[in-house]
Design a protein that fits this description.
457 residues, mainly alpha, Growth Hormone, Chain: A
Length: 457
């Protein structure tokens, strides 16, 4: 009897243990399920779009950017065609007016960022587009005073338009970061080059659709501090080596817009050929900009830069030795070669800034380069009416040699830096304050990661 009661008690105790273990297993299972659901929710929050959705959005953005780039190329061709026609209508004061206007645009860069912070990128683009439309439609009045006023108005808003464009680029990249956990350096450079082609594009519709989905903080700075930041970029040793190339690109483009159209194309082929020549230049520049990216993935950047310099020197030598005639294919060959060389140097210049400066610094570095670029435009238009053609060609060759040497040094320095730290690293100023800032940022990131781990457990 005692044994039976003992067995019954043992069996009941064993059943209670099994029930408790089953309940504990159920509780553990529920905890694991809740943790899995929490982790999946966290992953979904970190990845708002799956891979297919991200690819679809990326393709749609690429399509819209190509369409808008085509539109901007058409507008640029119209403006350049009108520029040469205005020279025959208003005389030599046309290019003098453009020289004064681009001088204003070189100075407008220093209040451009404050203008964008005051009115916003959207309104800035709208105002700049209105200035372009006024400049185009003012040709119907055939009034020299209105024409000069339209030039000044148009060039004054070039600086704010550049600043608004850079604001779009910065936020657009931030949206890409939200779409995917990692963004590679080559993807960042590709979107930089595509958005750089949108010089006269009024708005980015697709950007605003994503802007509503991904709210971002909009930092604003006082105008005085913005100007101080821009002026401080002149003291950067690496950027100062790039300034001669920025000035040369502006001076060279001004020469081709003024002297090449006036002394070569219009003299031999007539005014009706300028539009097709300039559109060819725009399309080749766009395609070459995209192809340079493929080149620099397989060929070192200094070699690509040297090839662009050789193409540019070849074009200038041909213009010096050649006498304009009615050989139409030769004009297109010269235009294509020039556009290819210009795209190589301009793309390498912009991507060098992207690889050199941090995300908070390259916008102001770009504004500094745009200022020197517009200054080159102004000097080219001013020299067009007073300096002999051969002197200007010699000046271009000398300026190219002066500009290519320091930029080649920058490319070699960047190549050496990337071999040591990898292509995703950013070459910045090497002073102690900047290094301390990097260390502080790394420590802050590590601290935040530790806090997140503690909260999770």
């Amino acid at each position: 009897m005692t044994t039976t009661s003992t067995n019954v008690a043992y069996i009941s105790n064993q059943n209670e243990i099994d029930v408790n273990e089953h309940q504990m297993n159920d509780a553990t299972t529920m905890k694991m399920k809740m943790m899995m659901m929490k982790n999946s929710t966290t992953i979904n929050e970190q990845q708002p779009f799956d891979q297919d959705g991200f690819v679809g959005i990326e393709l749609r953005l690429m399509r819209n950017l190509i369409i808008l780039s085509f539109t901007s190329t058409m507008i640029l061709g119209i403006l350049q065609n009108l520029l040469t026609i205005d020279r025959y209508q208003y005389g030599q004061w046309t290019y003098i007016g453009f020289a004064i206007g681009f001088m204003f645009s070189a100075l407008s860069v220093y209040y451009a960022q404050a203008f964008v912070q005051r009115f916003g990128p959207k309104r800035t683009l709208i105002i700049s587009t209105v200035a372009i439309i006024l400049f185009i439609f003012i040709h119907y009045f055939h009034n020299f005073i209105l024409f000069q006023m339209a030039i000044i108005l148009f060039t004054i808003f070039i600086g704010p338009f550049y600043a608004a464009q850079l604001e779009f680029i910065s936020k657009f990249m931030s949206n890409l970061v939200h779409l995917t956990q990692t963004i590679k350096r080559y993807q960042e450079e590709r979107y930089q080059r595509l958005l750089h082609q949108l010089l006269f594009c009024p708005s980015l519709i697709e950007y605003y659709q994503q802007q509503q989905q991904v709210p971002l903080e909009h930092r604003s700075y006082p105008s005085c501090s913005i100007r101080n930041v821009i002026f401080r970029t002149f003291r950067d040793n690496h950027l100062r080596l790039l300034l001669p190339m920025a000035f040369f690109i502006g001076f060279e483009q001004g020469f081709f817009m003024a002297d090449y159209n006036k002394l070569y194309v219009s003299c031999a082929l007539g005014l009706q050929a300028i539009g097709s020549i300039m559109l060819t230049r725009g399309f080749v520049h766009l395609g070459a900009t995209l192809l340079v990216y493929e080149f620099i993935r397989h060929i070192q950047r200094p070699i690509v830069l040297l090839a662009g310099a050789i193409c540019q020197l070849s074009v200038l030598a041909i213009l010096y030795l050649w006498r304009p005639n009615d050989d139409i294919p030769l004009y297109y060959v010269i235009t294509i070669t020039y556009s290819l060389a210009n795209a190589i140097m301009e793309t390498l210049l912009l991507t060098n800034v992207l690889r050199t400066f941090c995300s908070d610094e390259w916008k102001y570095a770009f504004l500094t380069l745009y200022s020197l670029n517009n200054l080159g435009y102004a000097i080219a238009f001013a020299m067009s009416e007073f300096i002999c053609l051969y002197i200007k060609l010699f000046t271009l060759i000398l300026m190219l040699i002066i500009a290519i040497i320091p930029m080649q040094l920058c490319e070699l320095r960047l190549l050496k830096f990337e071999k040591i730290l990898g292509p995703a690293a950013t070459l910045t100023n090497t002073n102690n304050d900047h290094n301390q800032k990097i260390i502080d940022n790394v420590e802050m990131i590590q601290f935040n990661n530790e806090q997140n781990v503690q909260r999770r457990y």
